[in-house]
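Journal club prep, notes for RB
We'll compare a predicted complex against what the paper describes. Inputs for the magnesium ion case:
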Amino acid sequence: MKGKIEVVIGPMYSGKTEELIRRVVRRNIAKQHGMIFKIFSDTRSKNENIVSRAGTSLKATTIRSARDALRYMGEKKDYVAFDEAQFFGEELFDVVNLFINRGTDVIVAGLNLDFRGNPFDNVMKIVAIADEIVLLKAVCVVCGRDATRTQRLILKNGEWVPASQSDPVFKVEGADVQTRYEPRCKDCWKVGDNMAKVGRHMDVIPEIYDDGKEAKGVEKRVLIGPKDGAPTFVMRHFTVKPGGFSPYHSHPWEHEVYILKGRGFLRTIEDEKPFESGDYVYVAPNEMHQFVNDSSDKILEFICVIPKSGA
Ligand code: ADP
Ligand code: MG
Ligand code: ZN
């Protein structure tokens, strides 16, 4: 006989892990054999347990992908369970089918919606083939009604505000933007659609490079970057005093520069390329380069864009 598929979905805090644990405990009381899988992650506790917010826990096996679960197929199991199904990717569908075809029941718990309110496709595919679907609700932390959504909040200028539509679905590890989640009802749930803003470069506090050897007379202002939630590029504004220069160095990321004011030259390994306001300058990854203001009286001012990896 083929296995049965039980799916537990809902927002964060709705009790999915609790429900998965409850179902597994009942099976264990019935002397069934099985195991719980969770996805490996660097940031979470490494101990091999799943823990609900209510404090209940059960031993689990940490795997790096849904396919890894197949390695445990050898001896026949009565059930397998996957917690946080959204992390297991598209291949969870095939893996679940392989288990049920061998007569193993599968319990899957996970988020149905991401913080933007879009379905997790891999979880919804399991819903489509499920024998039983449980939709759990949390309590809306704003109004106390049933919460079906997960609100992502980010810390911005000391205030928790809704994360923007353009935020990545899975938060990148080590992202410098502070993040937290809350269960909310549809009415209290918000996606910040507008991170757009206008600012003045003079309002940004500069970093000064002026030891006279490596660099001289340089002020750098990071105008747009991770602090604004920008996922890809960092825009910096530089001023270089007359006779000043940036370090002569290289790095694995490129520079895309636009000269706003003044003039100077780019020192490379082979020559000096003069530039003035209105010019653009490209420095490829790993090329030696230095920006020099060779004017005697005018400030050199330019914009330099780099990828986030160089910031
Ligand atoms: P999930 O796996 O869905 O994120 P858990 O099973 O880990 O949820 O935790 C559910 C428990 O979280 C509840 O039983 C309750 O004790 C606790 N909890 C804390 N805040 C809330 C909330 N706003 N709504 C519902 N449960 C909450
Ligand atoms: Mg959980
Ligand atoms: Zn509400």
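Talking point for the session: The CA atoms of residues 285 and 292 lie 19 Å apart.
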